[in-house]
Amino acid sequence: MTKPNLLSGMQPSAGSLHLGNYLGALVNWTKMQDDYNAFYCVVDLHAITVPQEPAQLRQNTRITAAQYLAAGINENKSALFVQSHVPAHAQLAWVLMTLTGFGEAGRMTQFKDKSQKAGADAASVGLFTYPVLQAADILLYQPKAVPVGEDQRQHLELTRDLANRFNSRFGETFVIPEAVILKETAKIYDLQNPEAKMSKSGDPKGLVNIMDESSLIAKKIKSAVTDLDGVVRFDRENKPGVSNLLGIHSAISGQSVESLTAHFEGQGYGALKTEVLEVVLGAIEPIRDRANELLADPAELDRLLAKGAAKANEQAEKTLGIVYDRIGFIPARR
Ligand code: TRP
Question: Which of 4, 56, 66, 69 has a CA-to-CA distance to 120 between 20 and 30 Å?
Fold first, then answer.
């Protein structure tokens, strides 16, 4: 039996993924690659919708890919590739742009947030069409499942709308993809501002990066915000800092929050932090070390990415060929 397809993507927007990306997305991606024919994409075309320094973008793209592989994305099971290596993404995006309403695109809340931050004149047309490119990323691979965070729900709805619109206008072409929204329990918050999602506060001290040195991670976890109550107990509302530490422990160790609370009974926050640090380093150190090994040999890393791009191109070209035919483009003879 053939496995259903799956696609997801992550931006190469930083020099490292953080603990929230890892526990929220990557862990699930590595698990899902057994049940699905998975395509995982580093979305560099999306990254340039905001200004990027070229050398930095190149480096961040390799670092992001290296972390995917180091965390267990297996290049033989899944296609791990860089979006700009598959020209069909930009090509299908153009077609889908002609099917997207101006007002429809203008209602995307991420566009509204990001363009407000950039200022109306600084926001590019590329930022405006970002969700349409994302729809193209997805629809090229005919995936049944698209694992994403809650913040991507609206983009997935647009993707489904565009797929349905194309299908009803030109005939059945696209599989209608389902968003697989990652679980609430996998949500990791900022260590300094535990009401905000990790990475959303802008405070580097609140962020555990996969590529951080262990001594730096120790410093960040030891100085994580807690409270004055002194009791290790899960209560997101009144004890967000302690609850976040318990959540991190639980997400990595697999122990339930209840059993952890029992385990820490009569102990203080020092003991909790010591153990959380142990668990976090146990998960992160091997990934960081493997990622650094991969980065030390960029030729080998680029070879792995070429292998992923070849698999991705094969599927993407097939879909784009059908689309071009359905809309009435004459075939390009080679
Ligand atoms: N917009 C997504 C994010 O910011 C990244 C992304 C781009 C994506 N293309 C995708 C996610 C396709 C899933 C599928 O997280």
Answer: 56
Asked if 301 contacts 71 with a C-beta cutoff of 8 angstroms, the reply is no
Check if the beta carbon of residue 86 is closer than 8 Å to that of residue 312: yes
Task: List, for residues 260-315, the tens digit of each pLDDT value.
Answer: 999 999 999 999 999 999 999 999 999 999 999 999 999 999 999 999 999 999 99
Contact at 8 Å (CB) between 226 and 234? no
C-alpha 160/C-alpha 202 separation (Å) is: 33
Classify each residue of 67-92 as buried b or exposed e, where b means 16 or more C-beta atoms within 10 Å of its C-beta: bbbbbbbebeebbbbbbbbbebbebb
pLDDT of residue 13: 82
- Round to whole Å and give the CA distance between 310 and 81: 9
pLDDT tens, 19-37? 988 988 888 999 999 999 9
pLDDT at position 186, please?
Answer: 66
Pocket test of ligand 1: the residue of 8, 81, 144, 150 to mutate, having most ligand atoms within 8 Å of its CB, is 8
How many whole angstroms separate alpha carbon 99 and alpha carbon 103?
12
Please provide the DSSP assignment of 2-60 as one string: PPPEEEEEE---SSS-BHHHIIIIIHHHHHHTTTSEEEEEE-HHHHTTS---HHHHHHH
Q: 8 CB under 6 A from ligand 1?
A: yes
The total of other beta-carbon atoms located within 10 Å of residue 122's CB is 11
Name the amino acid, one letter, at 60: N
* Global pTM value: 0.92
Q: Does the C-beta of 43 come closer than 6 Å to ligand 1?
A: yes
Distance 89 CA to ligand 1 centre (A): 13
CA gap 160, 53 in Å, rounded: 33
Whether the per-residue pLDDT at 15 is higher than 90: the answer is no
Half-sphere exposure of 105 (CA within 13 A, CB side): 19
Across the chain, what does the average pLDDT equal?
95
d(CA 202, CA 199): 6
The pLDDT of residue 332 is: 87
